[in-house]
């Protein structure tokens, strides 16, 4: 029998005074000595005990040392998954070499290239692969015939510092050889807190041996006294077979990639009930799958979410998932293992703050030295990093740049955001593909989803996203998924949806995105062949829809809605331009928004073709429609059921009902409310399917604007799923009555904003929504309403009507003539504010607030990346030019000023607050001299910009023409609105010349007792300097 630990011959000599560091061999031998007859491996009717495995590995090791001439070169393993492969790994480690698992599916030329790069000239093969790589020396491994030899001290080679070399293509496509240090594998498998595998547990071995996660199953078991149970690949890929295998083989521990876990969970969510530990990793975790497991009849004792690239020895972060995290839809990847350090940094390698997104860099045990034979790629990914900027110790470390984006909370938990190379730009908006996939999986309509970016080759076609979704049932439609998706994340890019029965998987169990892209492109191209045949108007229009949407012909029905099919404002712009060019007409964007179905647009164009321009649906009575809608709230009266709340801040009240908390101002206002000790509870009306999804939307919004939820008392936050665009806010009568009686005050900050959509598209949310909120405020008992309107409610009254000054209490009604030349959003706010004023006339306690152009936070510089000003500044800085727009005053204010002023005014002492009820306040800079015009704003940007070449002013029409050629520009979707002439030869933006001055007398009086809020508004230059970083962040990576 081969010598075991405790026999003199097997002892490893160490220098006097040098601490003994256990290696893979000695740790495995400890298990052999402790329990020699325990089963180590079980596969296909065969089994080896620990002592048998040790003996055979020792024998094979002796043969390796005899035959393999190069004493330190790594050794390839061309053996299928099973006992022979595991035996080969152990024998190579015994021989003091590094294991190189090779993919038997690759060609001999590919395998030879890999071995040559590593200077490896010897392989271990099984009988089925013994004929391959004929010019490479090899030894056949067969556990049923491996002889027994007595090992001696001379046969025990010094252990290698590198135990394994794996080849990973990463995102580059070309294999990279990653040498893994043995210390990293030991650190992973012997982590005391994770305690992956306990002695005697049966561990499923499902991972391909050419991927590093297999080491958890193999060495995690062997170093801890477990039993490896090899799962046939056909079983691992069949949910029913895998479920039965888990039961019949009494597995305790199982590891599955995210994709395989999703497939199995969809079919049998209770398949893992008998497991002690379920480990998943390799891709972003699917919260819906984990929820299904927890909701089934039985769940494993624990579910571990592991994260780590091959370059960090399998996993470097881990987390035991809770049911609560799964229900919330926010599952972290956890904290680092012992002896591992992680840092989140920006592009300049400066550490980011808590809650901010940064690239993960890793140092410590397990980090590879680099890529073998790839010095250039090594230098770009493995760097020497000096830790500083708030870290406790100044030190230099060897680190690996993962390319993964994460954020970290105050507890040190990491949350995966996405890949840097999966962070794509669509219509100028930076998008994380993994985030969209996560939201789709939360809908409970799909079992799994993968999103890819399609970049058309044709000139003038911009990139778009396609979401491949596996529906949970045959009744699920793309339109249903879209509706749910938009309800959860209305500000995210909307992908095009493609329903499929299954997603193709690569050999490593991950989704094959390349195959999906090829499949989609081929389907689209083949379906468009001959798409214009027939020559009719309907056929031509259908072709344009298919071409702009980029969908196969069979996916389009006459009643399909353009937006529901994945259309967005950029595509609207493209479709309008192509319709106008193809049919020789001048169609407005607003017309298209009113005729969004293929059938409706075909009928419109047919009418235009027959009747000419008079066939356009011009609403001669649109002003009458606004006036008519202005009376929708005339039935409102103060409630007679209970007392009027005069001071909502007193201890017996202090219960806030808030809308708009998922918006930019609303998020900051919610955070401010939760930081006020006197506020008992805040109930937020959120468009969501249930409270859990609504809370998730709020949490994501807070994180997006760096308002870390861990700093806020979220126990005082209640999420109310509903919509102010619906009667009774979308609540049942019992809920509606409860909150109407419960609330002390109503803050209505929510609104729909779309610069291309018509008044009718905004009417439900902005007009009816205001009526519904006022009905709520007067139901059960009368509550004060603090309503945010906009200075745009007056329209371009300065240019159109010659208005020079607008007192705060001047009602918009007298400026209705100017609204004809503004957007549907401004028109809806005109009507909504008119309704609020009429409510004031009946005695309802309403205060109206009109914010100016809200910029970022004056302290943190965090901006709203989706608003017009952010996109304008970013676009012009990248273009190097800005439009010359004379005499256009801009009332820029920081978001924290708006929030502080709103909260101070609304929560002042009863007598003070009462002075403002029934009045309006313009939330603009208290000093009128601080307002600057457009040209001055760009001059200020030129002064503070880091770019050497300043932006130059060019005529407006020339600027729009340049913008229309920049398909990926963040402003490109607004080209139709920016180009459309509405008054003579002037566009909507140009008619805002000669803007009136907005009064601020009420505001100044209200803030007289709060000089710190006024000081917080600061100078424009200071505010621009704070926000500059956010605006630059919207630009393409330089």
Q: Helix count?
A: 35
The biggest beta sheet reads: 7 strands, parallel
CATH H level, superfamily name of the largest domain: NAD(P)-binding Rossmann-like Domain
CATH domain class of the largest domain: Alpha Beta
CATH architecture of the largest domain: 3-Layer(aba) Sandwich
User: How large is the radius of gyration?
Assistant: 33 Å
The total number of structural domains is: 4
Strand share of the residues? 15-25%
Provide the structure class: alpha/beta
Which of globular, elongated, flat, extended, rod-shaped describes the shape? Answer: elongated
Sheet with most strands: strand arrangement: 28-27-26-29-30-32-37
Q: Could you estimate the helical fraction of the residues in percent?
A: 25-40%
Number of strands: 42
Named CATH topology of the largest domain = Rossmann fold
Average pLDDT score: 85
Q: What is the first-to-last residue Cα distance? A: 65 Å
Low-confidence stretches: 5-20, 151-155, 388-394, 909-913
Family: Belongs to the NRP synthetase family.
Keywords: Phosphopantetheine, Phosphoprotein
Protein name: Carrier domain-containing protein
InterPro entries: ACP-like_sf, AMP-bd_C_sf, AMP-binding_CS, AMP-dep_synth/lig_dom, FAR_NAD-bd, NAD(P)-bd_dom_sf, PKS_PP-bd, PP-bd_ACP
């Amino acid at each position: 029998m081969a010598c075991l630990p405790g026999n003199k011959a097997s002892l490893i000599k160490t220098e006097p005074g040098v601490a003994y560091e256990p290696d893979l061999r000695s740790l495995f031998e400890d298990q052999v000595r402790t329990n020699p007859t325990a089963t180590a491996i079980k596969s296909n009717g065969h089994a080896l005990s620990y002592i048998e495995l040790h003996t055979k590995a020792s024998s094979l090791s002796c043969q390796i040392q005899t035959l393999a001439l190069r004493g330190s070169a790594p050794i390839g393993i061309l053996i299928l998954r099973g006992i022979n492969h595991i035996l080969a790994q152990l024998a190579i480690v015994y021989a003091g070499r590094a294991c190189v698992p090779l993919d038997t599916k690759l060609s001999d030329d590919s395998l030879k290239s890999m071995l040559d790069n590593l200077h490896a000239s010897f392989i271990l093969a099984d009988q089925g692969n013994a004929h391959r790589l004929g010019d490479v020396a090899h030894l056949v491994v067969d556990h049923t015939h491996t002889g027994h030899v007595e090992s001696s001290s001379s046969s025990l080679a010094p252990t290698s510092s590198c135990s394994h070399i794996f080849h990973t293509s990463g995102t580059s496509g070309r294999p990279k050889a990653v040498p893994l240090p043995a210390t990293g594998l030991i650190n992973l498998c012997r982590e005391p807190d994770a305690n992956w595998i306990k002695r005697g547990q049966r561990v499923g071995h499902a991972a391909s041996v050419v991927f590093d996660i297999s080491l958890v199953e193999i060495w995690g078991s062997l170093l801890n006294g477990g039993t490896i149970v090899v799962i046939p690949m056909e079983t691992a890929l069949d949910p029913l077979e895998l479920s039965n295998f888990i039961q019949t083989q009494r597995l305790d521990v199982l590891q599955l990639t995210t994709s395989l876990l999703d497939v199995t969970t969809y079919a049998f969510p209770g398949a893992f009930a008998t497991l002690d530990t379920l480990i998943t990793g390799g891709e972003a975790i699917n919260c819906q799958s984990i929820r299904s497991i927890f909701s089934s009849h039985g769940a494993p004792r624990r579910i571990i979410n592991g994260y780590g690239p091959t370059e960090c020895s399998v996993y470097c972060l881990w987390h035991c998932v809770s049911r609560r995290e799964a229900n919330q839809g926010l599952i972290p990847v956890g904290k680092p293992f012992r002896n591992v350090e992680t840092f989140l940094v920006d592009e300049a390698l400066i550490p980011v703050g808590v809650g901010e997104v940064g690239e993960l860099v890793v140092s410590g045990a397990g980090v590879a030295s680099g890529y073998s034979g790839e010095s250039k790629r090594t230098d770009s990914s493995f760097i020497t990093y000096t830790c500083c900027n708030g870290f406790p110790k100044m030190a230099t470390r060897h680190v690996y740049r993962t390319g993964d984006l994460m954020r970290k909370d105050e507890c040190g938990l990491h949350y995966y955001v996405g890949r840097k190379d999966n962070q794509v730009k669509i219509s100028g908006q930076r998008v994380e593909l993994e985030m969209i996939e996560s939201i789709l999986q939360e809908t409970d309509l799909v079992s799994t989803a993968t999103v890819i970016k399609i970049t058309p080759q044709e000139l003038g076609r911009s990139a778009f996203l396609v979401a491949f979704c596996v529906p949970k049932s045959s009744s699920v439609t793309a339109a249903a998924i879209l509706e749910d998706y938009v309800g959860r994340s209305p500000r995210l890019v909307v992908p095009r949806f493609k329903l499929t029965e299954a997603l193709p998987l690569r050999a490593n169990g991950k989704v094959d995105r390349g195959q999906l892209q090829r499949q989609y492109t081929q389907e689209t191209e083949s379906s468009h062949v001959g798409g214009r045949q027939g020559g009719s108007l309907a056929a031509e229009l259908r072709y344009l829809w298919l071409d702009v949407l980029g969908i196969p012909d069979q996916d389009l029905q006459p009643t399909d809605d353009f937006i529901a099919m994945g259309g967005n404002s950029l595509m609207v712009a493209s479709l309008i331009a192509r319709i106008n060019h193809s049919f020789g007409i001048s169609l407005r964007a607003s017309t298209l928004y009113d005729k969004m179905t293929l059938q409706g647009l075909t009928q419109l164009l047919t009418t235009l073709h027959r009747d000419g321009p008079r066939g356009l649906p011009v609403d001669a009575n649109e002003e009458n429609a606004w006036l008519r809608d202005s009376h929708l709230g005339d039935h409102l009266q103060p409630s007679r059921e209970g007392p009027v709340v005069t001071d909502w801040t007193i201890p017996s009240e202090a219960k806030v009902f808030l809308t708009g908390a998922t918006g930019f101002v609303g998020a900051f206002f919610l955070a401010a409310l939760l930081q006020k000790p006197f506020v008992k509870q805040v109930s937020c009306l959120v468009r969501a399917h249930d409270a859990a999804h609504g809370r998730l939307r709020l949490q994501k919004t807070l994180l997006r604007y760096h308002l870390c939820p861990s700093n806020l008392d979220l126990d005082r936050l209640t999420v109310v799923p509903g919509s102010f665009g619906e009667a009774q806010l979308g609540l049942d009568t019992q809920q509606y009555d409860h909150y109407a009686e419960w609330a002390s005050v109503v803050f209505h900050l929510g609104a729909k904003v779309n610069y291309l959509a018509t008044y009718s598209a905004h009417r439900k949310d902005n007009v009816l929504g205001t009526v519904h909120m006022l009905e709520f405020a007067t139901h059960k008992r009368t509550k004060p309403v603090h309503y945010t309107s906009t200075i745009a409610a007056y329209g371009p009254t300065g240019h159109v009507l010659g208005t020079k000054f607008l007192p705060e209490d001047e009602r918009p009604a007298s400026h209705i003539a100017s609204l004809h030349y503004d957007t549907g959003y401004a028109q809806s706010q005109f009507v909504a504010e008119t309704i609020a004023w009429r409510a004031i006339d009946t005695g309802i306690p309403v205060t109206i607030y009109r914010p100016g152009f809200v910029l970022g936070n004056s302290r943190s510089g965090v901006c709203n990346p989706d608003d017009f000003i952010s996109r304008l500044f970013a676009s012009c800085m990248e273009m190097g030019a800005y439009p010359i727009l004379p005499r256009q005053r801009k009332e820029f204010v920081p978001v924290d000023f708006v929030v502080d002023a709103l909260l101070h005014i609304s929560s002042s002492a009863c007598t003070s607050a009462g002075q403002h009820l029934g009045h309006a306040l313009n939330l603009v800079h208290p000093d009128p001299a601080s307002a600057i015009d457009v040209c001055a704003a760009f001059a200020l940007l030129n002064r503070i910009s880091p770019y050497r070449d300043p932006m130059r002013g060019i005529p407006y029409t020339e600027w729009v023409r340049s913008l229309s050629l920049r398909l990926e520009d963040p402003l490109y979707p607004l080209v139709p609105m920016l180009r459309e002439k509405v008054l003579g030869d002037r566009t909507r933006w140009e008619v805002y010349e000669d803007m009136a001055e907005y009064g601020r007398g009420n505001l100044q009086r209200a803030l007289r007792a709060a000089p710190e809020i006024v000081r917080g508004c600061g100078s424009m230059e200071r505010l621009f300097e704070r926000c500059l970083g956010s605006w630059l962040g919207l630009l393409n990576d330089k």
